[in-house]
Amino acid sequence: MAATADETEETTDGSEPAADPAPRRRRPGRIALAVSVFGELLITAGVLLGLFVVYSLWWTNVIADRKADRQADKVREHWAEQKESGPGALDTKDGIGFLHVPAMRNGEVLVEKGTGTDVLDDGVAGYYTDPVKATLPTTGKDGNFSVAAHRDGHGAKFHNIDKLEKGDPIVFETRDDWYVYKVYSVLPETSKYNVDVLSPVPKESGRKKPGHYITLTTCTPVYTSRHRYVVWGELVRVEKVDAARTPPKELRG
Asked: What residues make up the domain containing 74?
C-alpha cells in the first residue's frame, strides 16, 4: 500500500518533523480555587464536629460511669461501716441512696446532693437544694423528693425517661429502707424556668394535698436543653431492708 503524504513528509534538511507540543493545562481560576479550599475546610470541620459529638455523647458517658461506680462503692462501704441510724446518718457526702427505675433500664443510679454540673457530670442524679429544696424521704415528712440527672452525655442516667408511664415503679434505696413510688403523672415538656413542678405539693401533676411525692426532671428534647421533661410519682409503701438486701417485688423478675 502506498504511503500517505503525512507518512513520507520530511523537513527540508532531511530530519523527522518535530512532534506537536503537549497542550498546556489550565490553572484553576481564583473562584475554583476558593471553592476547593472552602470544601476542604468544610470536610475538616465536619470531622472535628463528629469527634466532638463522639466525645460528648460517648466518651463523657464512659468517664462519668467510672466515677459513678467508684462513688457508689464508697456509699455501700460507708453503709456497711455505719453503726448509727436515722436521717442524719444517711445523708453522707458520698451520696444518700440509689434510684431504681426498671422502665428506664439504667441500673441503679446514685443520688447525691445538688443539681449543678459539678455533681451531675459525674454520672449521678442529684436532689434539688435550689430554687426549691427537696424533701428527703428519710425525714418521714410530707413533701417532694425532686431529683435531676442528665439525659445525654455524662452518664445519661435519665436518657429513657420518656419510657416511663403511669403505674411504673420508682424505687429509692437507702441503707435501711426501700421507698416504693408509683408514677401517676407525666409532663413531656415545660419551661426550664418552671420551678412549680418542684413544689412540695406539685399542683401541675394534679395533686392538691400534701403527701410523699417524687419528681424526676431532665432536659428535653433529646440532645438539647431547651425544655424540661417531668415525671411525678407518689409513695405507696416503705419496706425495711433485710440482711440480704432483698429488693422489693417491683425490682425482681
From this structure: 53-251
- The CATH number that applies at residue 57 is 2.40.260.10
User: What pLDDT, on a 0 to 100 scale, did the predictor assign at position 194?
Assistant: 98
Measured in whole angstroms, how far is the alpha carbon of residue 11 from the centre of its chain?
83
Residue 163 domain flag: yes
Question: pTM of whole model > 0.85?
Answer: no
Within-domain flag for 29: no
pLDDT tens readout for residues 62-77: 888 899 999 999 999 9
Cβ neighbors of 149 (< 8 A, separation 6 or more) are 109, 120, 124, 125, 126, 155, 157, 158, 216, 218
Domains identified in the chain, total number: 1
Q: Indicate which residue of 124, 219, 230, 231 is catalytic.
A: 219
Pick from 98, 88, 193, 206: nearest CA to 139: 88
Has 219 been annotated as catalytic?
Answer: yes
Establish if 10 belongs to a structural domain. no
Kindly report the backbone phi and psi dihedral angles of residue 241, in degrees, each rounded to the nearest multiple of 5, phi listed first.
Answer: -80, 130
pLDDT at 163: 97
